[in-house]
Amino acid sequence: MSDALSDGGSDHDDSQEDVMTPVELIAKLEEAWLNEKFSPDLLENKSEIVECVMEQLTHMEANLQRVSKGDTKASVHRMEIDRIRFVLSSYLRSRLQKIEKFFPHVLEKEKSRADGDPSYLSPEEYAFAREYLANTETYLKAVALRHMPPNLQSVNMMKAVPEPCLDSFVFLRVKERQDNIMVEPETDDQREYVVDLEEGSQHLMRYRTIAPLVSTGAVQLI
Amino acid sequence: MDPSEVEFLAEKEVVKIIPNFSLDKIYLIGGDLGPFNPGLPVDVPVWLALNLKQRQKCRILPPEWMDVDKLEDVREMERKEESFTPPPSPYYMELTKLLLNHASDNIPKADEIRTLVKDIWDTRIAKLRLSADSFISQQEAHAKLDNLTLMEINTTRSFLLDSLNCMFKLRSNMQPGSGTGKALDY
Amino acid sequence: MDSQSYLPVPPGVGMEENFLSLDDILLSHERLPSRTECLFPRLGYLEKTSDSQDIMEGTKMELPLWLAKGLYERKRRVVSVELPKVYREGWRTVFSADPTVVDLHKMGPYYYGLGSQMLHFDSPENPEIAQALLQTFIGRFRRTMDSSQNAYNEDTSALVDRLDCLERVLFRMGQSGLNSFQGWEKGRASHLTTSALVLNYRKRKMADLQA
């Protein structure tokens, strides 16, 4: 058995100031994956997690290069790598899907972001969104708009593409207890009321109510 | 979400296996496993247990709840109670399918277990439909769903959430002026 | 996997319309009984029933929703739009008695969509119409849900027949939830299939070669 595998990934973070262990890192990735899958809106990007996971994978794959194919340990490592890769690509893909669905709004949000605020998009996603907008415009122009009278040759993308609906309901599990969450009434004869979200409990409610708790990690969408 | 993705999450659950080989600790990115010694039970995630089983390198010990007597009690409770009782495991459906399909020779009374779990599932899904209907007809804004499992939520997720969205939009019709601002004129 | 190579734009529900949604484009072509409230000079050729050069004030005609919406103005009456029967009081009473007996496809097929769009035209009955749409939806929900959950691998046309377009979308959503679960249960999910995109790409490539 090669020693290359025995030191694993756990000592590998020492060089970074980041105190997250690989175990926590993978948990964070899975959390981000499910939140992104179930949230009606595009969440802030987690480039740091993505990069760290990629680093872990590359490191592990490099180690595996030195081990013979039939090695049992190596095959277990390969299976784990495949599983992590699956989560990673599914996560990135669900972000791309949302960017395609909401591209004008995503770009608008990025434009109106204050200087210090973190970007919602990774540099790659930003490039993708801009290209997607440009391609859509070129396409619409080529197939239809150029045949229209001059005053009708433009489409307002912000109006043409629906916005994310923050009033969508979501399922969630509470990770850190939250008191006094305001639930807005659905009908005129109901009143607003507050609920306490106990740790470990599960709820069905509007995304808008708990969106801030998703980004702080206090609740997990399920 | 696709059911196979829920199954993927279930595969992270830990089961006990009895290996027939020896191997030192494995330092995976997601945590350490082993060491493995022939005949000594050891905890591993289901994905690894199934792989080792397929390669005839281990015997899987069924989880404690996967037992005819226990499941009969659960079924009894589930039928008696109006609300959802705590599930035998948050992934009871997925684990039953995985373990019975790939390791039924390690699980006593596999067929009975399959039927029991299916009964429990059906009872719970019927309750889920009842509560979905009352959530809609009462126009509730919040529901607590403590004992529902991910697979149960997942079978009705898109239908229920989309219905709620439709209802929300139809209701906002009634507040004059709320929709008109967004109305597009082309 | 439920991922598709292209995501169709869903119809807007309620008073919103999605510009790029095929359903909403079809909805915007629904015809509404209307009446002109002023003279439309030199447009008589659009109105085949008279030989007049103009469309006279008070002419009754059917206008598609998009045109009626475009011409309608609150301040200056150019056209007035008549409420389709199904949203009038008589039918509203029928719906409130038992919404499940109505064939909304025959009455619609865009019962909720068109109903919501009608709210753009100022009518004293608007609050009642909006209320009727919501109550009808709620009243029919159980049926939509139950039929969508009991229809695995069956001929569903009889179940779908009486549903409005919006309900059909939900019905299919419920079905696909059920189908994917039952497919998974039977172990069908473990077989990988080629994505439609790749398949079409291959076909196109073959066609290119043969050309």
Automatic annotation (TrEMBL), chain B:
Required for correct functioning of the GINS complex, a complex that plays an essential role in the initiation of DNA replication, and progression of DNA replication forks. GINS complex is a core component of CDC45-MCM-GINS (CMG) helicase, the molecular machine that unwinds template DNA during replication, and around which the replisome is built. Residues 65-162 form the GINS subunit domain. GO terms for cellular component: CMG complex; GINS complex. InterPro entries: GINS_A (IPR021151), GINS_bundle-like_dom_sf (IPR036224), GINS_Psf2 (IPR007257), PSF2_N (IPR056784). SUPFAM superfamilies: GINS helical bundle-like, PriA/YqbF domain. GO terms for biological process: DNA replication; double-strand break repair via break-induced replication. Signal peptide: none annotated. It is found in: Nucleus. It comes from Merluccius polli (Benguela hake). Component of the GINS complex. This is DNA replication complex GINS protein PSF2. The keyword Protein biosynthesis does not apply. Belongs to the GINS2/PSF2 family. Residues 2-61 form the DNA replication complex GINS protein PSF2 N-terminal domain. The gene is GINS2. Keywords: DNA replication, Nucleus. Gene3D superfamilies: 1.20.58.1020, 3.40.5.50. It holds the Pfam family PSF2_N.
